[in-house]
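Subgroup meeting minutes
Present: P.N., E.W., G.H.
Scribe: E.W.

1. P.N. recapped why we're keeping a running log of single-chain structure predictions: easier to compare across weeks, and new members can see raw inputs and outputs side by side.
2. G.H. added today's entry (79 aa).
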Amino acid sequence: MKTNSPQNKSTAPRYVLPKILDGLVGRNEIANELGVHPRTIERWVRQGDFPKPFVLGRKRYWEAKTVRELIESKLGGPN
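Output recorded in log:
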């Protein structure tokens, strides 16, 4: 007999980047860190306010270092 145990899906990551992609961040991760909707990131890219992503397959990624530097420059540098 098969039992169905409840799984807490909110604590498990939806997708883990392969080690080869270390240093890259996705749109949702950036949006979560900045407290904005993921489509806001897309709008910023279209408006030229955010760098264009790398496209790998159907996914878009940014270099974490580039995103961090952009945010620090907009905030006036690291504290």
